[in-house]
Amino acid sequence: MNQPVSASALDTKAVDVEIRNVDLSYGTNHVLKGINLHIKPGEFFAFLGPSGCGKTTLLRLIAGFNRADSGEVLVGGQDVSHLPPWKRDVGMVFQSYALWPHMTVRRNVAFGLEERKVPKAEIERRVTSALELVGLAHLADRRPSQLSGGQQQRVAVARTIAIEPKVLLLDEPLSNLDAKMRVQVRRELRDLQQRLGLTTIFVTHDQEEANTICDRIAVMNDGAVQQVGSPMELYEKPANLFVASFLGTANIVPGRVIEEGGQRVFEIDGGLRLPIPADAKVPQGAKLVFRPQHASLGATGARDVSLPGTVLHSEFLGSTVRYGVRLGSTEVSIDVPFQSGEAIHKPGAAVEVGLSLDAAVWLAS
Ligand SMILES: Nc1ncnc2c1ncn2[C@@H]1O[C@H](COP(=O)(O)OP(=O)(O)OP(=O)(O)O)[C@@H](O)[C@H]1O
Which UniProt keyword terms apply here (predicted)? Predict the structure, then answer.
């Protein structure tokens, strides 16, 4: 998909997508719970969450394959909640690609346009443009079985963009590819999306995939949106423990807030204490959360507090060493930059754990 082909051959105008107060149940299974989202025109947006949290159900709702029990879906300001899929100007790429095995690549891409009774010359023009955009023009006469997984995925994308949707919906489009292809194809998808400027919604349970290609992410759990933000916002300012632990490694340390000499202090389970910064918000029942790189061992860098810990194990990762350290009664992960020739602490070693309080947060579940 990396040919320098102009996207202007296909008519794709960016629109926004709004999901308002959507609820959906399958029988007694309440799958989507009061979803509100606003996806901006031209945005590459991800629904990210664990298996079964409702991502695909929400995507299919936007496509028109599912109906909400209540709430609305707006595309470009128009309420499409009661329109069938083919009248919504949205195109969906399915996880399985759903290509016709007996048709050539060209016929697969043309099929949706023929169904829509698009004039022949127009079909020819759009199919050629879509195949050029995904870099498959030279394979137009092959059948899907004669293509690699990545190429089949591109056919599925070409077939969808040929119908000139206003919104592109991608349901785990990389899940059938091996790890190396996934990295390549996700870059191609991002590149294509930017050239087309097409509002795109991407479903994945893989945080790295969402982080690397999406502008913003809605983190979902158990049918509800937990937080919406850029990958960096979600990583640095998670709204709750679920988001903190779903995006990257987070140390989650239980304890309680106590008063000591007129100052709030956090007493970690196991008895260690650290001051809580005056401006820190600490919800009821909150736990201390920090990333492995926001702590240090021994004299490696000045930190705000120093607490005694015991090394449990270590992993040499090349540029860093990841230590498992007991802090109070909790095990935490601490990443220490590796300096050539430096000794690695052995299990059982007593260490001073330095903590940067401005990078720590207190979060409730
Ligand atoms: N057609 C259906 N009938 C009944 N229950 C369904 C149906 N489709 C999905 N579900 C249920 O709805 C919930 C959400 O499913 P959904 O496929 O939206 O989750 P998901 O987050 O996309 O998961 P995955 O990453 O595994 O695809 C699950 O409990 C699932 O079993």
Answer: ATP-binding, Nucleotide-binding, Transport
Buried/exposed 32-46: b ≥16 CB within 10 Å, e otherwise: beebebebeebbbbb
Angle at 133 between CA 132 and CA 139, to 5 degrees: 40
pLDDT tens digits for range 239-297? 999 999 999 899 999 999 999 888 999 999 988 999 999 889 998 889 999 999 999 99
110 in ligand 1 pocket by Cβ < 6 Å? no
pLDDT average, residue stretch 327-336: 95
33-36, Cβ contacts within 8 angstroms, sequence gap of 24 or more: 33/222, 33/223, 33/224, 34/224, 35/71, 35/224, 35/225, 36/225
Q: Which of 23, 28, 31 to mutate to test the pocket of ligand 1 (most atoms within 8 A of CB)?
A: 31
Whether 152 has a pLDDT exceeding 50, the answer reads yes
Q: What is the pLDDT of residues 30-74, one digit of tens each?
A: 999 999 999 999 999 999 999 999 999 999 999 999 999 999 999
Establish whether residue 96 lines the binding site of ligand 1, counting it when its CB lies within 6 angstroms of any ligand atom.
no
Q: Cα–Cα distance between 315 and 164 in angstroms, integer?
A: 50
- Looking at domain 251-363, its CATH superfamily turns out to be Nucleic acid-binding proteins (2.40.50.140)
Residue 95 alpha carbon, nearest atom of ligand 1 = 27
Q: Please report, for the chain, the start and end positions of each structural domain, with discontinuous segments joined by +.
A: 7-239, 251-363
ipTM of model: 0.96
SS3 state at 345: coil
Q: Which residues lie below 8 Å from residue 179, measured CB to CB, with a gap of 6+? A: none
Whether the CB of 56 sits within 6 Å of ligand 1: yes
Lowest-confidence region among 30-34, 97-101, 232-236 = 97-101
The CATH label, of 3.55.40.20, 3.30.470.30, 3.40.50.300, 2.60.120.10, for the domain at 7-239 is 3.40.50.300
